[in-house]
Amino acid sequence: MFNDICGAICDLTECFDNHKLKYLIGGSVSSSLNGIFRTTNDVDVLVEKPLNQFPLLLKELSRKFIIDEEALVKHHLNKKAYNIFHEATALKIDLFPAHTEFHQMQLGRAISVKPPSASCAFKIATAEDIVLAKLVWLQKSSSDRQINDIIGVLNLNKSFLDLNYLRDWAEKLNVLESLEGLLNE
Description:
Layout: H1 2-18, E1 23-25, H2 27-34, E2 42-47, H3 55-61, E3 65-66, H4 69-77, E4 82-86, E5 92-97, H5 101-109, E6 111-113, E7 122-124, H6 127-140, H7 144-156, H8 163-172, H9 176-183
Parallel strand pairs: 2-5
Antiparallel strand pairs: 1-2, 3-4, 4-5, 6-7
Helix pairs in contact: 2-6, 2-7, 6-7, 6-8, 8-9
């Protein structure tokens, strides 16, 4: 399963890299690579700019992904995620347009990884940023899976975390109380 996910990610990110579009892989893929592995049904991707600004990129992507370009443009103009599907694996990829200061910070801090099962390196959220993103997500929808992801990342990276950065952004994102509770577990 993870081989299929990595294959889809590589197909996607190679196109992004060819067109110099900043991105990062977030969600459970990022928390798995920064913490404890778990299975997932999709891949969350934060993209710097709406894809309709890159017509050649969309054309290139449409060779390997199912994309409704009109719907994609509509979703991104409304600052909403849009799903595309990798044809070879039927994997759903959620494309989130970066539209906040935190999104821009995440993109600037993204780290490059090359999992053993991947044919390419790709950018993922840092440990701190995936913790913050998942804490924000928890405000919208409580989930034991999200909490376990956060705890896994925190525990595995304890001695490497930039706690000042984490706390500063947690305060800005109104998730400081939740962060402190998880740090004290």
